[in-house]
Q: What sequence folds into this?
C-alpha cells in the first residue's frame, strides 16, 4: 500500500516503516471514526499462525490467560510477559479452530515476539521431546486493515462473504473475493473490524490493494493515519507499547491485572506468574491513570512531570495529546497510588508552569454517547 499512501498522506517513520500520519487532518479523521467510519492500514503489526494438537497448552504457558475458556471463533486480549512479569508485549489471540490460533502483536516488537515464542518452543521440545505445535510468521505474507466507527458494521456486512462475528469474535471468509480473517476488534474504542488479508506480500500486493480499494469504494469511509489512531486510543485508555507499557512495567502497576485478562489460580502456569502473584498481593507504589486538562493551555506530552497541589512530583506522563472530541488535553501516566482516585486534581509541569488536570476513569469520553457501548 506504500505508493497509495505516499501519494495521498503525510508520511512519518514508525517502528521501521514509513507510514501515513494523516491524510486530511487528525481532527477530521478522529471525528470520522467517532461518528462514522474510517479505515487504517495496520499491516505493520505482527501476525503469526500457530497450529497443532498442543498449541492451546503451549500458549497457556506464554500468556496469563486461561485459553481453555476461549471458544472457537473468539479472540482474547492478553500479554506476553518476561520472567519478572514485565511486558514483552500486549497481544491478541484468536482461536480459529480447535487446534489453530492467530496471534497479533505490535510492530515495535516485530522480531522480538516470534523469536521469543520460537525459543520457548525449541526449549520445550528439548525438555519434553516431540510437541505438536507449528508456527508460521505471516507478517510479510499478509496485510491488515482496521475499519472502525459506529457505521463499520453496516459497511463490512455489505462486503463480507461469511459470518460477520460479534464483538471479540473472529471468522474466516472472503472480502472482494480475497481470503480474509475478520475479527470484530480494534484500537479506537469504537465498534469495528480488523481484516487480515492472507496470501499477499510486498512483492504481490494486488490482493491487499483490492480489499483496500473495495472498502474505500464506500464513500462513508475515509482513510485515517497514525495521528488519529493515537488520539483515539488515548481517549479510550489503551496502552501503547514502548510508552505506557514495557519490559520494566507489570500488569498490576499498569492496572490491567484483572479477570479475565489474568489467570492466577493454583493450577495455572505461565512465564512471570510467581512475580505477578507476589505483586498482586502487596500495596502498589504507583499505578497507571488517565486524565483530562481542566484549563486551556499546552497539551500534556510524554515525559512531563505530574505534580500534586503542593508542587511535589508524584509521577509522569507516558502518553499525552489534544483530544479532537473533548477539545482539551488528555493522556495517561503513572502516579503514586494515593493520587489515583478519579476526580483527584493534579497538574503537569511545562516550562516551569503548572497546568491543572483531573484524574478520570477510562474511557475519557462519555461511553453512553461514543464508543462501542454507546446507547
A:
Amino acid at each position: 500500500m506504500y505508493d497509495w499512501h505516499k501519494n495521498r498522506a503525510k508520511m512519518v517513520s514508525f517502528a521501521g516503516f514509513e507510514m501515513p500520519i494523516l491524510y486530511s487532518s487528525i481532527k477530521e479523521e478522529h471525528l470520522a471514526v467517532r461518528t462514522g467510519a474510517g479505515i487504517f492500514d495496520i499491516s505493520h503489526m505482527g501476525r503469526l499462525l500457530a497450529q497443532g494438537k498442543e498449541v492451546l497448552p503451549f500458549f497457556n504457558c506464554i500468556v496469563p490467560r486461561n485459553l481453555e475458556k476461549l471458544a472457537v471463533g473468539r479472540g482474547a486480549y492478553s500479554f506476553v510477559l518476561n520472567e519478572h512479569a514485565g511486558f514483552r508485549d500486549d497481544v491478541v489471540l484468536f482461536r480459529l479452530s480447535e487446534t489453530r490460533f492467530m496471534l497479533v502483536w505490535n510492530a515495535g516488537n516485530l522480531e522480538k515476539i516470534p523469536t521469543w515464542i520460537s525459543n520457548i518452543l525449541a526449549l520445550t521440545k528439548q525438555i519434553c521431546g516431540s510437541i505438536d505445535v507449528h508456527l508460521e510468521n505471516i507478517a510479510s505474507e499478509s496485510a491488515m486493515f482496521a475499519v472502525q466507527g459506529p457505521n463499520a458494521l453496516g459497511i463490512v456486512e455489505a462486503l463480507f462473504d461469511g459470518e460477520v462475528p460479534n464483538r471479540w469474535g473472529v471468522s474466516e471468509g472472503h472480502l472482494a473475493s480475497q481470503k480474509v480473517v475478520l475479527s470484530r476488534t480494534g484500537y479506537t474504542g469504537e465498534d469495528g473490524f480488523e481484516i487480515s488479508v492472507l496470501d499477499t506480500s510486498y512483492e504481490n500486493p494486488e490482493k491487499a490493494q483490492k480489499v483496500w480499494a473495495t472498502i474505500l469504494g464506500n464513500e462513508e469511509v475515509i482513510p485515517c493515519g497514525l495521528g488519529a489512531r493515537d488520539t483515539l486510543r488515548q481517549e479510550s485508555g489503551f496502552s501503547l507499547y514502548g510508552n505506557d507499557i514495557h519490559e520494566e512495567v507489570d500488569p498490576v502497576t499498569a492496572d490491567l491485572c484483572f479477570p479475565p485478562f489474568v489467570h492466577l489460580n493454583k493450577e495455572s502456569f505461565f512465564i512471570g506468574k510467581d512475580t505477578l502473584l507476589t505483586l498482586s498481593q502487596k500495596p502498589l507504589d504507583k499505578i497507571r491513570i488517565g486524565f483530562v486538562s481542566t484549563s486551556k493551555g499546552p497539551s500534556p506530552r510524554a515525559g512531563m512531570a505530574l505534580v500534586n497541589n503542593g508542587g511535589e512530583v508524584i509521577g509522569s506522563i507516558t502518553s499525552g495529546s489534544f483530544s479532537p472530541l473533548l477539545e482539551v488535553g488528555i493522556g495517561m501516566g503513572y502516579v503514586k497510588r494515593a493520587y489515583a482516585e478519579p476526580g483527584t486534581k493534579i497538574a503537569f509541569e511545562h516550562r516551569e508552569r503548572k497546568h491543572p488536570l483531573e484524574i478520570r476513569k477510562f474511557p475519557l469520553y462519555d461511553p453512553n454517547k461514543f464508543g462501542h457501548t454507546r446507547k
User: Anything to note?
Assistant: The longest strand covers residues 87-97. The mean pLDDT is 96. Residues 157 and 211 are 14 Å apart (CA to CA). The domain at 284-364 is CATH 2.40.30.110 (Elongation Factor Tu (Ef-tu); domain 3).
